[in-house]
Amino acid sequence: MELRTEPTSPILKPLVLLALPVLAEHALHILVGMTDTYLANNLLETRGLAGAALDAVHQTNAAAGAAVGSITYILWFVGLIVSAIGTGATAIIARAIGGRHRRLANKVCGQAIFAASIAGIGLGVFVWLAAGPLANFTDLKPQAAAYFEQYIRILALGVPLAVIMFTANSCLRGAGDTITPAVAMITVDVVNLVLSATLTWGLFGMPALGFKGIAIGTTCAYVAGGLLQLTVLLVGRGGIKLFVHRLRPEWLTLKRILRIGLPSGSEGFLMWVGNFVVLKVVNDLGNIPATAHNLAIRIESLSYMSGFAVAMAVATMVGQSLGAGDPHRARRFALVGYAIGGGMMTLLGVLFILGGRHLAMFFTDDPEVVRTTATCLFYTGFIQAGFAAAIVFGSALRGAGDTKWVMILNLTSILVLRCGGVYVVGQLGGTLPMVWLVLCSELFVRGILMYYRFATGRWVHARV
After folding, report:
1. Which of 118, 237, 325, 422 sits between 20 and 30 A of 349, alpha carbons compared?
2. Cβ(419)–Cβ(277) under 8 Å?
3. Alpha-carbon distance 170 to 32, whole Å?
4. Domain boundaries, the chain
5. What's the whole-model pTM score?
6. Could you tell me if 42 and 201 are in contact, meaning their C-beta atoms sit under 8 angstroms apart?
């Protein structure tokens, strides 16, 4: 898209057009996460129960909910592997397509899929073998740990194709095709939704598999998505095509891909470690707090996923504006993006403050889980504007190529404030709401740091 540099050049329209498809994809992904959480928290029927029988069912449902929350971090870890491959593939393919080097783009695509295949198989085997130790490492209570191990062993079967699917999406986005990855992910999410609910509760004549049904639904969805995207690449789409002979290892190309992607993967890994520390502290508090923690995050995702959608559009337009030699326009895109993303997140923050209890009651009838979740949502409602600043201005800095400072600020905030604060709370025998006070404070401080870096204007001169 050619940019105009005059003051009347539109800002709002291109941001909205770029953000809407991402928002639609994220909205369905949020729905899948919420569905898994709902299924886990309602694994056993509570209707007609009372006393000890009701308490026993609530404990079982809480264990399932805690397990689903911890499994999210394993899926995040899988995403880090993809990031190390996909980021490099996206960057090189984008430049190759821009320079009309179609053969180079196809070669990089083949090498990325080769690397994804090896990494996916290795990761799948690792997850299968390490399911038990991983369950223990999360500090889940015994019943929740058993659910976690059962889910992970099933998920391991779909990990290779999941890694291939996400890598294929990165290749297609690098070629300028954002529609096909969106359609693929929507397909995956729909399959996940339908199969998980059907197999958990035994709908439409299917067997009722309970917690195992959630895992099978997710795994089948990843397998379907991986096969779909492999077919797309073999047929050819978006200016690139996967040729079988390109799957033979070419070490110089692989090295080039990883040289670009590994720094991004390293930052993501350190952030994952920081958040995993939080998970261990929360799981150590028991199944009820762990379930409430996962549920509060799922509900809060209604807010921050909208911010991420706008932030991705901001990153693109800031980069394009700087490429066109118009830093003033880049600055305007970031500020308007924050007005949109921050406005949406702040409004949802008000909803969390006023209606957190009702939102929690939609997912569970366990009064203790509802009360704890509502308290966490109440706290996070007040910092959504700061959280939005961290997301949007951080993305603007990345779009400008100022990734070094984004990494420094993120890691300093997470590893020092978040991990340090949560560790102290854990050592003092604190509660989940106390943990969330630390998390909310850290997010607000991170937002201030990102805005300060943006306000200095030094990102304009970042070298790419």
Report:
1. 422
2. yes
3. 21
4. 8-41+285-464, 46-261
5. 0.76
6. no
